[in-house]
């Protein structure tokens, strides 16, 4: 028989923790027992799905690199949706990332940028950290003249507890290389503004 891994042990302990929560008398008496029979298992599975990026190497995602063919203007990828988890409260925050870069010698496959965002988003963290991780990794691997990201997100830890602020949202920005200086900085910030209400469908 294989020896249980640390992940197996963590799953088991987390399931027990969720079971203890639903065994609290004041909680147990207001729920239907047949509905929560498998809830500890489902909740544990959900947590590990939300933390899936912990077992991914973001460097390996940026593996589709091509010659820029002398393309020398900014490449934008706006409205990249994501869901992440606040490391302070283990509650979701979700929203959109708007990313762009100015190629040097290489461009990257467009699908790789949302995958990079998704990899980092699927980790427990704060929004500021998410912003920095995306641009720093992109700069390290692709080596553009510069890149930047603006992230807009709603945080459950702000809207459903604590401050109870709805619909307040958080915006963060991380700029690297030429994106720190004008006129590139201004061009980037203008380029992520919505030009139409809906592109497709």
Q: How would you describe this protein?
A:
With 201 residues, the chain is of the alpha+beta class. 38% of the residues lie in helices and 24% in strands. It has helices at 6-23, 25-28, 39-50, 58-61, 112-121, 127-142, 156-159, 184-191, and strands at 65-67, 75-86, 92-102, 106-108, 124-125, 146-155, 170-177. Strands 5-2-3-6-7 form a 5-stranded mixed sheet, sandwiched between helices. Helix 1 crosses helix 3. The longest helix is centred in the first third of the chain and has 18 residues, at 6-23. The protein starts with 5 loop residues before the first helix and ends in a 10-residue tail after the last helix.
Distance between the termini: 52 Å
| Main beta-sheet strand count, sense and barrel state | 5 strands, mixed
User: How do the strands line up in the largest sheet?
Assistant: 5-2-3-6-7
Query: What's the total count of β strands?
Result: 7
* Number of distinct helices: 8
Give the class from helix and strand content and strand pairing. Answer: alpha+beta
Helix percent reads 25-40%
Overall spatial form: elongated
Q: What integer is the average pLDDT?
A: 89
Strand content: 15-25%
Give the uncertain stretches in residue-range form.
Answer: none
Give Rg in angstroms. Answer: 21 Å
Question: What order do the SSEs take from the amino end to the carboxyl end, as H and E?
Answer: HHHHEEEEHEHEHEH
